[in-house]
# Entry
Amino acid sequence: MARLDGKVAFITGAARGQGRSHALRMAEEGADIIGVDLCAPIDSITAYDFPTTADLEETARMVEALDRRCVVRQGDVRDTASLTAAVEAGVAELGHLDVVVANAGIFSLGSTLEIDEQQWQDVIDVNLTGVWKTVKAALPAIRRGGNGGSIVLISSLAGHKGVPNTAHYAATKHAVIGLTRVFANEFAPEFIRANCISPNSVDTPMIQNEATYKLFAPDVEHPQQADVVDAFASLNALPVPFLDARDISNAVVYLASDEARYVTGSVLNVDAGAAAK
# Structure
């Protein structure tokens, strides 16, 4: 019996990166998936390209290739109505909902005096308000099942440390840890658990781009990954520069599974020891 047999998970940001990885890893363990992604650009985020509807459809194809069911919808975590519609469409086809993974997030860099108001607001709206809206959209369906459930939020090393040039991002990731603890207390009487994962430097387009490299190699005109590997590795206690998205997904599977049935209100650092430095 797989670790998530019989469970249905709702995942935001499912088109690629960590979100796709979470969907596939959970499907490997027997879960059916409801996936949502914006699949469109946000004007203030220019360092990397955003996924497309084709990417989201590819996630669904990959889940189905694992012999699991998958319902995907284009949706915006800033829009409660689109999240609720996606949840209800998924539950109508898959029967119930057990897990919500509020994974969608955006990232940009700039000193506190350099970032503009639109950058600030977009990051707050997606990374913090979007997490709250995701849980708010998913919880009624989880409650209807009457069997408890699991809320998994994604924070960051920047949720523990004052990482320079990330005031807007760090503010949201600190706040996500606070939300985790509130959700854990509010929903514990119904055996709905809430936990948080804090990764660092995951090997996805959000990190692997020239703008982020430039922060670590400011004197290189067009820095490449090879120019910054040592700098990224220096952030971690373990001698590795980047984590694979699957490393984070393994933690998602654990927190979603019955193996973690008495784990709630926790923050699990999957960061190669970066928070310990």
